[in-house]
Design goal:
The chain has helices spanning about 40-60, 65-95, 95-115, 155-165, 180-195, 210-215, 230-240, 265-275, 295-310, 330-345, 380-385, 400-405, 420-430, 470; strands at about 5-10, 10-15, 20-25, 30-40, 125, 135-140, 145-150, 170-175, 200-205, 220-225, 245-250, 255-260, 285-295, 350, 370-375, 390-395, 410, 415-420, 435-440, 455, 475-480. The N and C termini lie far apart (about 80 Å). The protein folds into 2 domains: about 5-250 and about 460-480, 3-Layer(aba) Sandwich (Aldehyde Dehydrogenase, Chain A, domain 1); about 255-440, 3-Layer(aba) Sandwich (Aldehyde Dehydrogenase, Chain A, domain 2). The strands form 6 sheets. Strands 14-15-16-13-12-18-19 form a 7-stranded mixed β-sheet, with helices on both faces. Strands 9-8-7-10-11 form a 5-stranded parallel β-sheet, with helices on both faces. It is of the alpha/beta class. α2 runs antiparallel to α3 and α3 (about 95-115) runs parallel beside α4. α5 (about 180-195) links the parallel β8 and β9. Bound molecules: nicotinamide-adenine-dinucleotide.
Length: about 500
């Protein structure tokens, strides 16, 4: 009998009101069930939001440095349980242990960074244009924050959102991805063990349309922080805008790495292998296009194919495994359909391009690392997000052409240029349309204290990580203190 996990609503671990449940299976072996989870709906969301709203006043009045201390303790607990969480996360969503440990580490770094922000949350002071008057701005929380997350970073992404939301004084209703609910339960347990007052966090498991959308629509929810696909982000934005809710969207990507002739080719090779095939290509920042200068194209491509063919697929819990499965049947089918599209469009399949079923992989969603060459920037495989271990190689003649090819997509998350030419590097930094640009590093890898996010259809201008996320989770109040003892009229008495 699989373990029955619960929601956390109104200070209690509980089932969905409708009694329904869904299964969570290991993508490396679909015969292994991790547990069943509440398949919640609008009734559970409503209970959770009303409880979080009732808890808001006490929480917002707790001094921010004290709130930060709780987040610091949550970071300490993530350190303590890191290995357990990483192993469970690998079973739940497939990526290799090295990467699930990194996922938890990102949560730890975010906790320690967010905890100290409780002692800053800076506003401004500025001189008044009138005598005996004092001007300042302060930051205040908004109320109940709705948080909706994807499955590919089951710990890191919830911590990016929930730690800052809490430090700023908001209460949170958390709807995690239906593919990674076990890590979400673990995260909420840690917050409670760290001393977060009950009802300040609420966890509602379930699917996007039945549990996620009611959270977006709920009138008591003041802001939504969402990471996921662009179509769902657009839908959320249109629904939330009816009530003028604040919405932060971190959406899809179609990231590219450019390699120029003067680059360190071995370094560029390590970068593209890690960027394209790490997490089986299922990172929002994954390298899904490789833009090679014609002078090194014919040398670099065979080096890349040789290394890609050596990557070991398997269960992520095995230390030798380098590439795990993709997340579920739907995503598996979607990637396979893009492999067909690539061939139909006339790209040359150099390696991979099929399901992998050897040995322990026979009951899992494994796809061999795939490389297409002869890709034109106009092809669908060069423009659309595939979200799997598939790399499209484009040949170019100049840096300008490389940047044009890189920009030729509706997304704009991450980008990378390998070169030793400082002029080329600064030109690329200026002209690449992306929220993140790496010079001589792969497209993947965030740091907790730096802003993270994208341009164009990757987002709506907000950033996670670093200081900007604390702006998202607070409202500015401007304060004027007049200690002159008389009526002073701005723009009139000081003409
Ligand atoms: P998804 O959009 O299918 O789901 C994300 C979350 O939204 C899940 O919790 C899901 O239940 C919920 N959801 C789905 N439909 C909904 C609806 N109608 N209303 C409300 N909620 C709904 O995305 P996914 O497959 O989980 O994740 C992969 C996508 O996420 C990729 O496009 C990837 O690029 C993107 N992503 C972006 C970033 C970033 O920071 N830019 C990071 C990670 C993943």
């Amino acid at each position: 009998m699989p373990v029955e996990f619960k929601n956390y609503i109104d200070g209690q671990w509980c089932n969905a009101t409708n009694g329904k449940r869904f299964e969570n299976r290991n993508p490396a072996n679909w015969e292994e069930i991790l547990g069943t989870f509440p398949d919640s709906d609008s009734e559970d969301i409503d209970r959770a939001v009303r409880s979080a709203a009732a808890a808001y006043d006490a929480w917002r009045l707790m001094p921010a440095p004290k709130r930060g201390e709780i987040i610091k303790r949550a970071g300490d607990l993530l350190v303590k349980y890191k290995e357990d969480i990483a192993r469970e996360m690998t079973r739940e969503m497939g990526k290799i242990l090295l990467e699930t440990r990194g996922d938890v580490q990102e949560g730890i770094d975010t906790a320690y960074y967010a905890a100290t922000e409780g002692r800053r949350l800076f506003g401004h002071t500025a001189p008044s244009e009138l005598p005996d008057k004092f001007n300042l701005s302060i930051r205040q929380p908004l109320g109940v924050a709705g948080v909706i997350t994807p499955w590919n970073f089951p710990m890191a992404i919830p911590t990016w959102k929930i730690f800052p939301a809490l430090v700023c004084g908001n209460t949170v209703v958390f709807k995690p991805a239906e593919d990674t609910p076990a890590t979400a339960v673990r995260f909420v347990e840690i917050l409670l063990e760290a001393g977060l007052p009950e009802k300040v966090i609420q966890l509602v498991n379930g699917y996007g349309s039945s549990a996620g959308m009611p959270l977006v629509e709920h009138p008591e929810v003041k802001l939504i922080s969402f990471t996921g696909s662009t179509p769902v982000g657009k839908l959320i934005s249109s629904v939330a805008s009816k009530d003028l809710k604040r919405v932060s969207l971190e959406l899809g990507g179609k990231n590219a790495q450019i390699v120029m002739p003067d680059a360190d080719l071995e370094l560029a090779l390590d970068g593209v292998l890690w960027g394209a095939f790490g997490t089986a290509g299922q990172r929002c920042t994954a390298t899904s296009r490789l833009i090679l200068h014609e002078a090194i194209h014919d040398k670099f491509l065979p080096m890349l194919i040789k290394r890609a063919e050596k990557l070991r697929l398997g269960n992520g819990l095995e230390p030798a495994t380098e590439v795990g499965p993709v997340i579920n049947q739907k995503q598996f089918d979607r990637i396979l359909s893009y492999l067909k599209t690539g061939k139909d469009e006339g790209a040359k399949l150099e390696t991979g391009g099929e399901r992998y079923t050897d040995g322990v992989c026979k009951n899992g969603f494994f796809i061999r690392p795939t490389i297409f060459s002869n890709v034109d920037p106009q092809m669908r495989i060069a423009k659309e997000e595939i979200f799997g271990p598939v790399l499209a190689v484009i040949k170019i003649k100049t840096l300008d052409e490389a940047i044009r090819a890189l920009n030729n997509t509706k997304y704009g998350l991450s980008s990378s240029l390998y070169t030793r030419d400082v002029n080329a590097a600064f030109k690329a930094i200026r002209d690449i349309e992306a929220g993140i640009t790496y010079i001589n590093g792969p497209t993947i890898g965030a740091e907790a204290h730096m802003p993270f996010g994208g341009v164009k259809e990757t987002g709506n201008g907000h950033r996670e990580g670093g200081w900007p996320v604390f702006e998202f989770f607070t409202e500015i109040k401007t304060v004027f203190v007049d200690y002159s003892g008389k009526l002073q009229r701005a723009q009139i008495d000081n003409q």
